[in-house]
Amino acid sequence: MSSTAWLGVVVVVSIISCTAPNPRSCTDGRCTDTAFPFCDVDGSVGGTPQTCLDVACTPDEHVSCRGEVAIRCNATGNDYDLVECPAGCDAQGCVVPAACTTSDQCSNPTPVCELTSQVCRGCRVDSECASQICDLDAGSCLAVSEVVYAAPAAGPAAACSQMMPCSLTRAIELAVANPLRSTIRMSPGTYTTAIRTTSGNITIVGEGATLQAIAPASSIARGSTVTIRGLRFNLTGSQLLCGGDGTSPATMLGGTLNLRFVDIQLGENSWFLAGGCTATARGVTIGGSTSSGGTGVSLSLSDNSSLSADQLRVNGTPSSPLRLLTTQSTVSVSNSVFENGRIHTVNTGSQVDVAFSTFAVSDNYPSFFSATGNTVNLKNNIFLTSSGPAVDCTSCTVTNNISFPQGPAMNMVVDPQLVSPATGDYRLKATSPAIDAAVASTPSTTHDFDGAARPQGPAPDIGAYERTP
What we know:
Blueprint: H1 3-19, E1 38-40, E2 51-53, E3 62-66, E4 69-73, E5 80-84, E6 89-90, E7 93-94, E8 112-114, E9 119-121, E10 134-135, E11 140-141, E12 147-150, H2 168-177, E13 183-186, E14 189-191, E15 201-205, E16 209-212, E17 217-220, E18 225-229, E19 232-235, E20 239-242, E21 256-260, E22 263-266, E23 271-275, E24 278-282, E25 285-288, E26 299-302, E27 306-310, E28 313-315, E29 322-327, E30 330-334, E31 337-339, E32 341-346, E33 351-355, E34 358-360, E35 368-370, E36 375-379, E37 382-384, E38 391-392, E39 397-399, E40 401-404, E41 411-413, E42 418-420, E43 425-428
């Protein structure tokens, strides 16, 4: 055979090898090569997420934890089993809960007695703890001595104890000053005191509490780190500021604001403004009506702010949709629902990544708009439109989305077959083309808007909801 013929063979082999699927990658949730059977989704075994691993292990040996799931060698030593751990997972595997008849017989990290099974487990809600504070991530109860207590009608001279709560302003002062007592429990009721911080690292838990119409503003996380969980904000003619001081132009001092399961209701001339702020939002609802038409701004990020939002729900109205406006900032959104809500990226210099979310608008404005000069990636989303385009963005990377009934063509212009969009139910029907149709994206996800695990099938589903059997 001539040297030219040999060269042709080499070229063909090279092309084939470049287009063959990578047997070590499971970005779609699957491992197709039996030599590499286990998908290391989070990298907890091999160190590299979404990698297929070869397995040779000691049967029934505990390997690692993936949250509250134990990764354990199977009976034949050639693959790993995933085992749910109701009481948690540690270095030895599934935690074996202690037997109990009352919670007095239990202690952290499993402080609650589950009466049906008579075993100790982690707390799940604040009311299961004597302190009225449950660390939801750890499942443990805070001690009363670690908590500062506030009540709506309390005076500043009260002791800030569980029996004698003090004003919210006084509680914040004490929490900022003492890192060992930096968690505030707001008793149920309505508060009219603004939250203002300029230093420290505090947590505010407000299940059953409402912060009502603060004027001129609550300046939260101004040069500090603040976590707020379970609180409801009713804002009319007032603002919730992160990183600024409420002046115009705002003095940007930075700060970090973490919102968990917070409900923000906006009235006229009210909004959430982040300037030079790092904000995270999980399980947060933003609703209300701020202005008419497509110009209403409910969230505004500027001056190198960042927002990482998961399980966010934005509820506007057909006549007054709510809008997330970003200028020279970084935004990451996943597993979220925008109902009469949209994202606008203006000017230049922003980085925006939106994945596994569902947008539904009933006017002729686009769900997503971006000016040129921004880096925008939209992937694995569902866009329900009325009469306007789903996306107005010539420089965006738009991949593997479903748009209906309007275009532009974004991989699939097809009815996503949702349960009941007219009533706000954006879950997938069993016949939806979004099922098992998602591809790897940033941000990635292991759960959906409701917290259901992804994937339920061979690959995750497109949109905010994962179809469950």
